[in-house]
Amino acid sequence: MALLAYVKSLFILQLLMGFVFVVSGLIINFIQLCTCILWPINRQLYRRINCRLSYSLWSQLVMMLEWWSGTDCTLYTDQATVDKFGKEHVIIILNHNFEIDFLCGWTICERYGVLGSSKVLAKHELLKVPLIGWTWYFLEIVFCKRKWEEDRETVFAGLDRLRDYPEYMWFLLYCEGTRFTEKKHQISMQVAESKGLPKLKYHLLPRTKGFTTTMQCLKGTVTAVYDVTLNFKDNQTPTLLGIVNGKQYKADLRVKRFPVEDIPDNEQECANWLHKLYQEKDALQEQYNKEGKFPGPTIIPPRRLWTLLNFLFWATLLLSPLIKFACGVVVSGSPLLIIGFITFLIIASVAIRRLIGVTEVKKTGSSYGNQEAKKQN
């Protein structure tokens, strides 16, 4: 085990895996660009193709979590809820406390066949991130600047387009709007106090506008809301760098299904329902911290080989010519070629590190309620 952990920590292996992800992502983005000609001819065919192309990219990250780091994902829910997974359009509400919360969500999506068609209400800044933002653009992800006056038309139009989506989709909402930090939590609870709302201990005050708007626009399309509360065993604080280094984590996800008929249509009542839900989520986190588990039965969905086979396909396709080229550079003895190749490796490692930085808590999130940050902006 110690030898395996050492091998996983080798920088050269991590760099090669990063190379496969980046280059395959660029190839996939180019193919996605070519599929745009299908949009005016056959929109549903365009969508089905892009679902599979995005799967080919995102499943490489899922492979890192499942097969490289060996992270376990345990569901706390009933069998009746699991039986509906991947068989209906749903809205997912997930707490935003961890760097890899999106990756755990993608893992469950993959195991139930909806990874390629998964959606998210994403901040507009991510559209500019290579590979991630570009793939999401072709996948019709709804981007917002979190300024309702500017977002209204864009969000309504984006959600309305998804009403006839041909693949079952899980639409993820981070209702807190930004990732949890202690500073943001203090500011958020000041807002809660000013609005006369109960304070939360483990969550930020949810932003209701995104949820109520999504419910309104996708009414008749989505049949349920899945409330997902994520935590990790032994007070672990997982990071994407930890996953890259092969560190194993144990994720617990409590899932509760709410039929849309049980959620109020009225905007204010719907917002109140969401606030009450987050109070329940807070109580669940309190219970988890005391007992080390969520209540209810557990289900561990089995890993699928597709993620591993997909990565091996891309690795075989891309690493063979790279290794041949590297050997040719070394054999040539040309200082210019060797320096050029080393420069390429340095640039590649910096680029991969910057992509990882997108997920880091200290480098992400908004200045929600932060008057000092607003003044600086």
TrEMBL record:
InterPro entries assigned to the protein according to its UniProt record, in alphabetical order: Acyltransf_C (IPR032098), Plipid/glycerol_acylTrfase (IPR002123)
Superkingdom, natural source: Eukaryota
Domain Phospholipid/glycerol acyltransferase, chain residue ranges per copy: 90-212
One GO MF term attached to the UniProt entry: acyltransferase activity
Annotated transmembrane regions: 12-39, 311-331, 337-356
Keywords: Acyltransferase, Lipid biosynthesis, Lipid metabolism, Membrane, Phospholipid biosynthesis, Phospholipid metabolism, Transferase, Transmembrane, Transmembrane helix
Family under the similarity heading: Belongs to the 1-acyl-sn-glycerol-3-phosphate acyltransferase family.
Name of protein: 1-acyl-sn-glycerol-3-phosphate acyltransferase gamma
Upper lineage: Eukaryota, Metazoa, Chordata, Craniata, Vertebrata
Name of the coding gene: AGPAT3
